[in-house]
Amino acid sequence: MVDTPEHVKKLTLPQLQELAKEIREELIAGLAKNGGHLGPNLGVVELSIALHRVFDTPKDKLVWDVSHQVYVHKILTGRKDRFRTIRQTDGLNGFALRTESEHDCYGAGHAGTALSAALGMAAGRDKRGSNENVVCIFGDAALTNGISFEALNNIGHTTKRFIGILNDNEWSIAKNVGAISHYLNKLITSPNYNKIARDFQGFLRRLPKGNVALKLAHKAEEGVKGALSVGMHQKPEMLVAADGRGGFGNPILFEEMGMRYLGPIDGHNLPLLVSTLEFAKTCDYPIVIHILTQKGKGFEAALKFPEKFHGLGPYDAKTGETPAPKPNTPPNYQDVMGQTLVKLCRRDNRLLGITAAMPSGTGLKHLEKEMPDRYFDVGIAEEHAVIFAAGLATMGFQPVVAIYSTFLQRAYDCLHHDICLQDLPVIFCMDRAGLSANDGPTHHGLFDISYLRCLPNVIAMAPANEDEMADMMFTATHQNHPTFIRYPRGAAEGVPIKEQPRLLEIGKAEVVQNFSNNGKKKVALFGLGNLNSMARKAAEQLAAEGFDCAVINPRFTKPLDAGTHEFFGRAAEVVITLEDHVLMGGYGSAVLELFNEKNVTTPVIRIGWPDQFIEHATTQDELRRRYGLTVENAVAKVKAQFEQPARMFPGIEVSATI
Ligand SMILES: Cc1ncc(C[n+]2csc(CCOP(=O)(O)OP(=O)(O)O)c2C)c(N)n1
C-alpha cells in the first residue's frame, strides 16, 4: 500500500482503485482492536485518494471539518506505519493535528470550523500573492452549524479561489436533522443541475488528448451521466414543491451566496472525483462540489448501523460485533442522565430535553424514545441550543440542555448574555466533564468550573456518584436560576439509585467522614465529583500512616459551602483539594479565594490538571498517572507538606534555600 501523496500521483486508475480497496481493509482491520471513527472514514476513502491525487499537500491546504474523517489522509501522508496507534498513548491523534504532520494544515475536533479557517487561508494566500489551492471538506451536518453559514456568507466577496467539498452522507452522528438536510435532499433530486454538469462536461472534453486525466475523464463522463439520473429514481413524495425562488430544488443557496455549485456526484466514483477536482482547480470563482457518500461503505455492519459505527470501541473485524459489557459494569453516566430525565419529565410538564446533535452521547435518546414530544435535536448548533432553551424558559418551561462540557464552550456568550444575565432557570447536564482520553485535547472537558464560576446567578454542582447525580437533577428542577451539573465520561460508581431522588440544600457540602480527633495530624480532603472516591482512598492510606483524615464531598462549586470549607480548613493542618479539572480557576482556586477572604491560613495542596492542553491517551488512568491525579501522589504531597521546614508566618511557605 502506498503511503505518500507522491506515490498516489504515480498510480494508474486501476491501481488507485486497488489502493481504495486496501485502505478500506486496513481501516476495518486496523481499528478493530481499539476502535475509532470507522464509518466516516470508510465513506471518504475515494475522496481522500482523489484529493491527494489532484492536490499537493503540504503546499495545497486540505481543511477537514471536525476532522474525525482524516484517517485515510493520515495513511496517505506518511503515517501508515503508525496508523494502528491511532487514539492510543503516544500514538497518532484521532483528528488533524498541526504538530503531528505538515500535511495537517489545521487542527479540529469541534464541528463547523473548517469553512472559516479555509477562507482565512484563502484570504491569506490572496494577500501574500501565493497560489496554493485551499480545499475545505465539510459534512452535511456541518451545515447545521451557524459558523459554517457565517463563513459561506463571506466567501463570495472575499476570494475568487476557494474549493468547498460538501461530503453528504445524510448522517450527523445520528441522522442529520432540520431544514438544511431536507434542502440537500432537494438538490439530490433536482433536475436543474444539468446545466452546471454540462459546463463540467465541457471541461472534460477540452482536456488534451493523451493526458492521463483524459482516461479518467472519459470514465467520469459516464459517472456524470450516472449522477444525472439520480433524480429519476427518487420517490414521488421526495419531489416536493418549489422553494419559491427558482423552482424545485434549484441549487440556489450556494449560488446565491456567491459560489458555483457542482453536483451532486457519486463520491465513491474515483475517476469522476479526480476529474471534478481537476476542474475545480481551474476555477477562478469559489466552487462547492456536492458529493454523495455512504458512511460505512465497504463494511456491512457499519452500513447497517451508521450511528453506532460513527465512532466506537473494539469490534469484530469480520462481523462488526462489539463485545458485551462486562457483567456488573455500572451504568454510564449518560444513560443515568437520560433515564432520570425521563422519570422527571413524567412528573413535571415544564421539563424538556435539548441536544445539539448528540442523542446517544448525552443519553437523551432515552427521552427521544419515551417522550418524543418533549425532545429536541437542534443539530450541531450549541449556541442556538442554549438561546433556544432561554426562549423556552421565558415561556415557563424548564429546558434541560444535555451537552458535552467541551461543546458548551462554543456557547459561552449565550450562557453569559442570554441565560445568566436574565437569570433563566435552564438546567445544563454537562457530560464528558473530565477527560475524553482517546479523543484528546479537543474533547477533554476540563474548563467548565472556571468558565462558569465567574458568571453571576450560576448554581454549579458535581455529583460524587450516579445516585447523587439523580438528586442533583431533581434539585435543579426546583431552582429558579441557571443550574449546571458536571459529570464524567463512562461508567458511574455502581451505587444503587434511589427510587425517589432527594432535594439537596443548595451550596451545602456533604461530610463523608469527620475527624476522629485522635490526636494525630489532621488532614482535610475535599474530593470534588468523580474524584471524591480518590479522596476517600487517599484518606484510607493516610489514616494507615498515622493521620487523622476528614473527607468532604463539596457537591457545589458555586455557591461554595463557605461554612464547611472554613470549618475543616481551620481544623486541619493540611487541606487537599482534588478535581478533574484544570487547577487554574477551578474548584481548588475557589477554596483558596475563600480561605483568603476568611483568613484561613492552612496550607492547601491542589490536585488537578496543569495549565496546559492534555494530550490523548489509551486510558484516562494513564493520563492521570502522568499528571499526578492519583491516590499515591495525593498521599505523597500531604506527607511532603508535613516534612517542610517550619513556617515563618502561618500560611506563607518558606523556601528551603532561604
Ligand atoms: C461543536 C461540536 N458539536 C458536536 C460535535 C460532535 N460531533 C462529532 S462528528 C459529528 C457529526 C458530523 O457529521 P458530518 O459533519 O456530516 O460528518 P460525517 O461524520 O457524517 O462524515 C458530531 C455531531 C463536535 N465534534 N463538535
What is the topological layout?
Layout (H helix, E strand, L loop, with lengths): L4 H6 L2 H20 L5 H6 L1 H10 L6 E4 L6 H9 L34 H15 L5 E6 L6 H13 L4 E6 L10 H11 L4 H13 L5 H17 L23 H5 L3 E7 L3 H13 L4 E6 L7 H5 L28 H15 L3 E5 L3 H4 L2 H6 L4 E3 L4 H13 L3 E7 H4 L3 H9 L6 E5 L16 H6 L5 E3 L4 H11 L6 E4 L23 E4 L7 E7 L4 H13 L2 E7 L2 E3 L3 H10 L2 E9 L4 H12 L5 E6 L10 H8 L3 H12 L16
Parallel strand pairs: 1-2, 2-3, 3-5, 4-5, 6-7, 6-8, 8-9, 9-11, 10-11, 13-14, 13-16, 16-17
Antiparallel strand pairs: 10-15, 12-14
Bound molecules: thiamine diphosphate (TPP).
Thiamine diphosphate binds next to loops.
| Shape type | globular
Give the oligomeric state of the chains in this entry, treating copies of one chain as homo and distinct chains as hetero. Answer: single chain
Mean residue pLDDT: 91
Q: Rg to the nearest angstrom?
A: 28 Å
Strand content: 5-15%
Biggest sheet, spatial arrangement of strands: 7-6-8-9-11-10-15
The low-confidence parts are 212-249, 651-658
Biggest beta sheet attributes: 7 strands, mixed
Number of helices: 26
The tally of strands reads: 17
Name the bound molecules.
thiamine diphosphate
| SS-based class | alpha/beta
Terminal residue distance: 63 Å
Helix content: 40-55%
